[in-house]
Write a structure and sequence with these properties.
homopentamer, OB fold (Dihydrolipoamide Acetyltransferase, E2P), 89 residues
Chain lengths: 89, 89, 89, 89, 89
Amino acid sequence: MYLGRVIGKVWATVKNDSLRGQRLLIVQPLTPELAPAGKTVICADCSGAGAGETIYWCKGKEASFPFLPALVPSDNTVVGIVDLLHVKR
Amino acid sequence: MYLGRVIGKVWATVKNDSLRGQRLLIVQPLTPELAPAGKTVICADCSGAGAGETIYWCKGKEASFPFLPALVPSDNTVVGIVDLLHVKR
Amino acid sequence: MYLGRVIGKVWATVKNDSLRGQRLLIVQPLTPELAPAGKTVICADCSGAGAGETIYWCKGKEASFPFLPALVPSDNTVVGIVDLLHVKR
Amino acid sequence: MYLGRVIGKVWATVKNDSLRGQRLLIVQPLTPELAPAGKTVICADCSGAGAGETIYWCKGKEASFPFLPALVPSDNTVVGIVDLLHVKR
Amino acid sequence: MYLGRVIGKVWATVKNDSLRGQRLLIVQPLTPELAPAGKTVICADCSGAGAGETIYWCKGKEASFPFLPALVPSDNTVVGIVDLLHVKR
């Protein structure tokens, strides 16, 4: 999984039927020190995260597991909201 | 999912049978501010998007979900057309 | 999918049984303007493409779909030969 | 798989149900010479690794295999603790 | 698939059960001209390749096919040893 911050939303009327009703968040990846790191991605959401929150998201086929048995074509899904993190390099 | 703009099309006569009848779009990835970002990709389409439209596409195994039960060898599929997006960094 | 040009072949005697009889092509990724872009990959082939031809290939799990029901460990497969492409940036 | 070192942990109360009870480790990728190499990732753990240990982790769909039959949305999982490695370039 | 050379081995006592008995090789990716290209990866092996040999390996879900029906959490697997390659740019 990867750390990120929710920085925006996307609205789309024309879309694949299995994405109907899914919120689409714009996520900025972060370092463990919470600095921006790399290109933004669009994530489906299964955590209820809102603008400005620190979250972690999941890439790839596993990103569609939270929506099973529906086969949602999501390759990036927010799966949790971060309370606290501890790093010692 | 990733933001992009449709900038072209590909025609191919010789191809895997399961790709017959699929439109192939050339997509330029975009930042949330709609600036070009990175290398173009070729996407199958399930949204009806046309040249110049802002879309979002899906990578990986999930990119083949919109075509189920057919097992289409597509690793990048346009899954929606963007109406509006809001970003606050 | 991604644009590329066939620039070579690989011969291997010792290999996984499910790759027996598969042609292995060396492919140079291309931009839509057909300039080289990035590192070469080795692709299985299901299109019959030959040296110098412009093709598009598919990455990931989907790259094994053309060989079903055989479970071929191919993560990059040439799936079509390009006739024509049109780009307008 | 990839070499890395455990450098921290993440706590999250709100998360996908299938991640309940999983430890989440912050991992710094390493070269074979054990120098840091690239961006950190968050890994689920099935090895019991602790802070400072050298581990190897697995990316992608395969990262969810250790949790089967549960379909855990993990795209990065620590699968082993390194005892020794030998490199000759 | 990708070209590489075997440059080392990893030993690990504590690991996921499904990796028990698998050899773990450190692989340096190569260009078609056999120059080093990019970061090393750790690969499971199903070819019997030894130190110094030129091999090609497979990434992603497909990397676990050679071990079926066992669900081995391997995301990189050496699938063949290169005898000869021919490149013409």
